[in-house]
Task: structure prediction
Amino acid sequence: MKNKIIHFVFIILIISLLVLVTMSFPRFWNYAGSPDSWVGFLGSLLGSLLGVVGAYFVMNTQLQSDKKTAILNEKKNERPYFFINTLSKDKVNFEFYNANHSLLNYMDIHVFYNATDNCLEYPLGHAKANTMKEINIFTEQDKPDIIVITAQTLLGESILYIYGSRNGVGITNTLVYDDKKVIEVYTGPDDYHQFNDIIAKITGINLEKKKQ
Result:
């Protein structure tokens, strides 16, 4: 549609230019009215046309911007905020909420012991917001070092929540990622890089924050 309008305006400009050139040769101009009157008329017509086209582009740009903003806000309303309530030797309790009070799909919890040496995985499937989840950890090992929860929102965004500490460094971050990079860190400081080996182990790819 935009290309058609551009082509239309270009054609009008060419025709107007040809008319003005023709008017400079009186023998080719046999219409009533003086050339000055026709120049004024064509200028007024062309100005009105350009004004309409300009208004259309401004309106279209605003509509596209509003649409992108609405989509982004809807995505943000689906993003979860997690809370680890209990981190003990034999169980993990957690819950999450989001603005839409909706579901998360394909939720899995990954429990790391002794940094990245050992990991247990627990598939949880679908989970509803504001609902407590309890995972029994059947192991004789020490208390987990790192808890990682992966899930997908109803709008298809991949979410990774990482919580815990190792070597005296703690982390509580929630990330949006795809198969190539971290798209956004929307909770916690931007310090996930030192835990990139854990993130890579879960996602299968070394993630780097999207460059601004």
User: Anything to note?
Assistant: The first helix runs from residue 2 to 23. The chain is about 35% helix and 35% strand. The chain has a mean pLDDT of 80.
